[in-house]
Amino acid sequence: MMSDDEEEFEQPSLLDGINVAIGILQDLKKKVTNAGENEVLAATSVLRDVGDETALPEAIKWLRTRAERTADDIWDQLVALLENYSTWDEGEFWDHFHGKLRDLGTANIDFRRKCLFRSFGYSSTLFHEVCKLNPPANVVQTLIDITPPAWEQKEKDEYNRNHRFTPIHCEPGQEFNHLARAGAFIIEYPLDKVMRRGGSLELVKVLVRAELDSLRSSDKDKGAIHSSNDCRDSVFHVLVANKANHPVYFSEILRHLILSFDLSYHSSPLVSTNSRGMIPLEVLWESMKNEGLSDEGILQNDDFAFLLKATCYHYQNNLVEGVGEHSNQSKEIEQVPFAQAFLICSPCFGKELTNKVLEDLFAKDTTFILKKETNGKYPIHRIITNDSYLVKGSFDFQLFLLQTILRIAPLCAKQRDDYGLLPLHVAANPQRVRYTSRHKYEHRLSVLNVILKAYPEALSVIDSETGLPPFALPVLHENKYKNRGLVQHLSLSSTYFLLRQQPDMLSGIIASLDGSKLKATSGNSKKRQRTSNPSKQST
To answer: Which residues lie across from 125 on neighbouring strands?
Structure first.
């Protein structure tokens, strides 16, 4: 900003400064010409007029300083435009602002760095402020195009190794990026701001394309799509929470974001919770309820069905290491059966709704429960191992889901996987489902009890992998547990629980043990008699 004294007269322009430098050079040219063949006099004139404290170096220095101040002036003009946005006609504003950006694009890289690589106020960037206003997509594209690459990182310290920069940045050492947060005090990405304020589909596509291009051209491992902001809200959380702000393009934006996600990242935001412990699917359900939709209306909504299937698809792919490229995600997601997706995501909807929906789905089609999956297991096996259901750590819901499945389809308790294992074999073996605390042990007893009520004959079926009866499986614990004593105690208690469910077998085992003990006692008596005879004969 200029002081009051500076505002009293017009500042000289760059052209004025160049004219001054030309005048000094012309005077120097006359002095050298007048020196003629006297090289000493000519050299003396040059050294005298080109010295550090003389007029020519000062003029050149002034020109450079004035040019750098021009970058400041342009920055100030852009800031002033944004701050006065509400006083403009929207179309005229973006035409004028876009023209400023195009003019800036004609400058060299150093000038653009000086103009664009700075913070907007204390906690934002120019890109964040522009995206707040839902600009036309071509304005954002121009801003992306004219922003030069980050400066070369010369330092090799740990900080700089951990902070890689994609093409849109402020100066090194600061995380100023149109795709990322502006710094320690910014909690949202620019893409989040577009989602929150109802930006257009074309604008979203521009930002997403820029992020994907930057990820491909650098070793930066995350961006706005693949991570969450400081409030733990992913861009998907922000979009579905502000569904009402996207009355026209919500469906298209939702699908574009999902299909742009790179499945090689194993922490999909579709199955990641925000600060409220909710995944995007739950937030969308909440938004639709706030809009007045009934449960049935939400379940029949195309956007909800697509996000439900996509959540199931991402969750199952997250469980597979080294997932390759999925070139046709849209088709693969659409092919996920709605019933299967709901079963996997059922913990998001509570017990009452889950019970009702599963009953309705089973009445229409039984295959989602009774059909073997591609991994050789049935849904009940996966529910027991909890390796593919969004139970989110809730043993209570897992037990409820197991009870519901066995109530509406008791045959599930008799299903064998490709290894010939019944659900009871899976639940009883701690090497298949780990139970290392008293709380989990009590949960296991409940699981075993539910399975036995549906199929008590399973107690007589030998485990095909170990060759052991079910009551012997709980003691197959691993010795690497730190609390090995507790594990052994809980395992023996589980064995006793299973034996109690088979009184006849328990009686037979006790009888066989008593018979073995009696036989052993008799054998020891005869042995003592044989060893005593020689001494008697000698006596």
So the answer is: 119
What CA–CA distance (Å, rounded) separates 155 from 510? 75
Helix (H) or strand (E) holding 250: helix 250-260
Give the Cβ contact number of residue 441 at 10 Å: 20
The pair of three-digit structure tokens given for residue 332, joined into one six-digit string: 């693969």
DSSP conformational letter for 434: -
What single DSSP character describes residue 348?
Answer: G
Residue 228: helix, strand or coil by DSSP?
strand
Q: How confident is the model at residue 127 (pLDDT cuts 50, 70, 90)?
A: confident
The DSSP-derived string for 119-166 is EETTTEEHHHHHHHT---HHHHHHHHHHSPPPPP----SHHHHH----
Contact indicator for 289, 239 with CB cutoff of 8 Å: no
Which residues pair with residue 119 across a beta bridge?
125
What torsion, rounded to 10 degrees, do the Cα atoms 8, 13, 16, 20 define? 90
AA letter at 40: V
- ∠ Cα 337 376 306 (to 5°): 15
Rounded to a whole number, what is the largest CA-CA distance in the chain? Answer: 150
Instruction: Quote the pLDDT of residue 3.
Output: 45
Q: Which two tokens stand for residue 532?
A: 């005593």
Asked if 78 and 118 touch (Cβ cutoff 8 Å), the reply is: no
Q: What are phi and psi of 106, to 5 degrees?
A: -80, -10
**Helix-helix angle 201-216:190-197, to 10 degrees:** 160
Q: CA 12 to CA 383: how far, in whole Å?
A: 78
pLDDT band (50, 70, 90) for residue 509: low
The C-alpha angle with vertex 269 and arms to 267 and 272, in degrees rounded to 5, equals 80
Rg, Å, the chain Cα set? 38
For the cut 70, the answer to whether the pLDDT of residue 155 exceeds it is no
Cβ–Cβ under 8 Å, residues 122 and 185: yes
- The DSSP 8-state label assigned to residue 391 in this structure reads -
DSSP annotation of 455 reads: -
So what's the pLDDT on residue 275?
A: 83
In the DSSP assignment, the letter for residue 430 is T
* CA pair distance 57, 100, nearest whole angstrom: 32
Q: What is the pLDDT of residues 267-305, one digit of tens each?
A: 688 888 888 888 999 999 999 999 999 999 999 999 999
Cα distances (angstroms) measured from residue 233 to each of 201, 210, 274: 20, 21, 5
The conformation of residue 234, written as its DSSP 8-state character, comes to: B
The per-residue pLDDT for 5 is: 47
Q: Which two tokens stand for residue 488?
A: 């052994």
The structure tokens 């257009």 sit at 200
